[in-house]
Each structure stands twice: as structure tokens, then as C-alpha cells.
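Q: My labmate handed me this sequence with no annotations at all. I'd like to see what the chain might look like in three dimensions before we decide whether it's worth expressing. Could you predict it?
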Amino acid sequence: MFRRMKKTFPAEFADLLTPKGRRILEGRDRELTGALLDPERRFVALQGVIDPRKAVACRDALDAALRDTLVSMEDPIPHDSISGMTMNYMELLPKTVRVRTALLESRRSRSYRAAEAVGLTDMMRSDSFAAFAAVVSGRTLRRKWGIQVLCYGPGDYTGPHNDHHPEEPEARDGYVDMHVSLTMPGVEHQYLVYAKDGHLSELTKVSTVGGVTVYRLPFWHYTTPVVARRGAEASARRWVLLGTFLDAAPGARASSTIVPAGAPGARPPARVATFGSGGGAGRR
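A: Here is what I predict for the chain of 284 residues:
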């Protein structure tokens, strides 16, 4: 079945980009190059960087190929989160989540074979995918990065959390995530809520088609439940392509790193391929 699927995703992320997206990738956008080196700026949400026609084609191919291969990922509020309290106003809430995910860790999984068949795994492992994250973050990143696909349906969400990993030496000082959002027409909205000045008071819409969000973690945030358009609940899905990138170690070999465009030792951005062509070519 998977062999009959068309490789809709290009082999290189660069081939999805608009001229604006290419300027960012090539380090020619002064505002966004190294934007996340500012410690007060934890993420950027970008629109107009992925070609809308290509985003829709990729979204529809992804939905058709992976929809029936997903597994549930659910961590509800602990049942004793209220009854177990012994002091007033001392409630503690761990990270809660309800979403579905594609298992891309094993090449034998149905999700992996479906993602490979439509060209998704090649694109998410392409140099230009990591290079885009490197440019916006302003950091040299490790060449080996984690990839994941999430699918939010009606009522699916991720509760307040900060994505800090103090027990992991390679991530405890921060790391980079990049999300590509591919939202089906049945979704009314989903938002990212994030902290500013110690309060979860800011929000931005993430239920986009081709929106790209680059994060410098950790920081406090959550995603609101997906709200479906009336009568479209069955087709209300927001797909998220997620890459997780660790900072390169000081003195790491050039062959094991992705250097931001414009920095010493940076390689030229990937050549734009022909959209829709095949081409062979974690964390979290």
C-alpha cells in the first residue's frame, strides 16, 4: 500500500519556502537571523515562509497517509490532584496532554513507512530543515536531531509545561525546537499561550497552514484545545511536524554540525529541488 503513495514532500525543506523563507534560510533577513540569541525572546512565529499551495498539498498527503497509523498519547490530570492536597493553595499540576502521534522511532512501524512513502522523513532530515532552525536560533546545532509528528483533534491540547530537562547534560542549558503547522480546514482555532513577566498572559494562533514556529526552550507555555468548526468535527485535525535540535558542543567537528548561514564555516543553503519529485534523502 505504501509503495503506491506519491512522494509529495520534497527532499529538501528549502523547496517548500517562499522568497521570504529563502531569505531567512540564507541568513539575509536582518530581523530574524539570530533572533533567539536575545534571552528575552523565546520563540518566533512565522507566516508567509512556506508556499501556501505546497503546504496544502503536503498537508493533504500527510493526512491521507498517516491518519490511520497514529497512536494516542494521553497524560490526564492525576486523580488525587485534589484529594491528595493537605494544605490550602498548594496544588501542583504536572504536564498534562492529549494528542496523537506518529511513531517514527522505528523503521518497521506503519507510521514510519507511511511518512517515508510520502517523502516526509527525508524532508525532516534534510540539511535545510535544520539550517532554518539554526539561522533563527543563531546557534550551531548538532547534525543528528529528533523528529516527531503530532496530530491534534477536537479537544486535544498540551497543558502548562516548560520543557526543561535538568537531568540531561546536553539539554539542561537550552535547546531548539522547530514546528511546522499543517492544519485541516475543519479546525476553527488553536492557540499557544506563553509566559511574559511571570504570567501566562500572551497568546498566538498556531492553527495555520504552513506556519513555522522556532523555540528556544525552556520557557512556560501551553497549547489550548483544538476547537472544530461547527459540523466539521470529524475532519478537524492540526498536524505538527517537529524537529528537536541540541546545541553543538564547543569544538565539534564541522561534519557533525549545522552552522547558521553567514557564520564562519557555514555551507551554502541547499539547492532548490523540483517540488513533488522523489529523491532520497530523537529527541522527544
